[in-house]
Amino acid sequence: MTKSLQSEDKIIVGKVGAARGLDGTLRIIPLTDFEGRFDGLEKIFVGDKLFGVEEVKHISGQIFIKFAGVDSREYARALTNKFLTVDRKDAAPLDDGEFYTFDIIGCEVFGGDKRLGTVTNVLKTGSNDVFEVDGNILIPALKSVVRSIDIAAKRILVDEHAY
Q1: Which of 107, 125, 89, 101 is nearest to 34 (CA)?
Q2: Cα pseudo-dihedral 134, 125, 149, 89, rounded to 10
Q3: Judgement on whether residues 64 and 106 belong to the same structural domain of the protein
């Protein structure tokens, strides 16, 4: 997962990849855990410009989007590597105890009264996420290790003896 790149009112859900074909269709690199995030999408920001979504296709495990007004391979290439963002209010709902990665990044981590550092990245390992703290401490995101997460206070409390 990339470091936090979104503003307070927008969240990153993907990145534009290469053009596909001649009609302006683009491959999308999802940066979200919600696989259906792009289905039914009507509009999305590409960089700082809002685009309508004409079509979303799933082909061989990849996502392709045709944006309104992007009708050539050359125009599509100009959008490559731009981030796709949506308004924070349009974020997919979470269950209790679940958090967005972008909300975890930037939280200060404490082991008891000792400040351990700031979460700089969240690594997806397959079995569980791992919080990278100041680039040199790895803390597994397990209930046995993470005691509490307070997103509003940007504070995570961990059991300093459990990792």
Answers
A1: 101
A2: 100
A3: no
Specify the pairing of strand 108-111 against strand 155-158: parallel
Q: Is 77 a member of any domain?
A: yes
Full domain range(s) for residue 134: 101-158
Backbone phi and psi for residue 37, each to the nearest 5 degrees, phi listed first: -55, -35
pTM: 0.66
Strands (E), 68-160: 83-87, 108-111, 114-124, 129-133, 137-140, 146-150, 155-158
Q: Are 84 and 46 within 8 A, CB to CB? A: yes
Tens of pLDDT, residues 1-13: 333 344 568 888 8
Q: What is the pLDDT of residues 25-83, one digit of tens each?
A: 999 999 887 778 899 889 999 999 999 999 999 999 899 999 999 999 999 999 999 99
Specify the amino acid at residue 85: T
Distance of alpha carbon 8 from alpha carbon 62, whole angstroms:
29
Same domain, 142 and 117: yes
> Same domain for 85 and 16?
yes
Report the C-alpha gap between 133 and 126 in whole angstroms. Answer: 19
